[in-house]
Amino acid sequence: MERYPNISDHGLIGDLQTAALVSTDGTIDWFCCPRFDSPSIFASLLDAGKGGYFRVAPDTGDYVTRQLYFPDTAVLITRFMTPDGVGEVTDFMPVAGASVTDRHRLVRMLRVVRGTMRFVVDIKPRFDYGRRSHKMEISDDGVVFDAGGMHLTLHPVGERTVPLGEQGILAERVGEDVRLSRTLHEGETAGMVLESMGGRPSRVPPAEIEHLTEDTVRYWRGRRGRSPPPRPLRGTGAADPARVPAGRAGPGVAPAGAPTCIVDGGVRALPFWGIDDHQYLLVNRGEPTWPAALDVTAGAGLATAAGALEAIGVGRLVLVGVLDLDTVALERAVDELAVHDDGRCRC
Known about the structure:
Elements lengths: L9 E5 L4 E5 L3 E6 L7 E3 L10 E6 L5 E6 L6 E7 L2 E8 L12 E20 L2 H4 L4 E5 L2 E5 L4 E6 L13 E5 L2 E9 L3 E8 L9 H17 L24 E2 L6 E2 L5 E3 L2 E3 L9 E3 L11 E3 L6 H10 L15 H10 L11
Antiparallel strand pairs: 1-2, 2-3, 3-4, 3-5, 5-9, 6-7, 7-8, 8-9, 9-14, 9-15, 10-11, 11-12, 12-15, 13-14, 16-17, 18-19, 20-21
């Protein structure tokens, strides 16, 4: 996987109030919380060094990966194939509901289909676009990342009566971040829930995860006929995020299909992509003056949008997630990240 993967190398998961991008190497490299337009917690898509990420992957680089959605849902499966086995990471966000909340959950389940696989989990949050430091506390019940007004809680999946060490989970502090590792054999599963404003960590029983999965699948399948179905991106089995109904910024706000940010040189173009109107709102941070808006026809994919943006001189397309935003504050924050600039269109 490249240091800055293309948009086509990502899947999108969401809970109707925010969303996360998951690359095909198992990395959540963009996540704003508690809303689409909130400051980022994981933003390595923009800055691999300072942006932060949440990665689950084999401990070897010798693997082939494929990404796909569980049929008719926003439940994402990243499959890893190594010489020693085949493993999967299933990612989803339980639906947050109609009421605005600060509590959002990223569920990441691990499973080995064949053979053996040792998974390594790296969690490196960088709150507020990497501007706010945090403290980490590890206990036998999980991990808390505390940045003052915002904290994340890692809840391991497993029986409460069995210590993590006896489950084969090795937890290692890396500064104020954490690395977890565990070897799974054919048919075995493991997992974790990363929750914003989740309080003290606690074990999540496997039966509860099963219920969350069933409820989430049921919800997305219930949307059939109300939103466009996901369609494959070029060269991948994952769906185009522009066609996945990721959610809403809050009650009464238009749906957000693919939260995005366009970055090019001295220009920060901060758009809104709505499932209904498919409109990009471009915000200028300096001269020259750029168009205030660019309409993209309903049903157009990200590749079409990228081509239209290139025509007016905006060369890179990366997903960010901004709605109802304070544009001045966001531009200032994103400007502090060392945004990658390799001259490629990431579509």
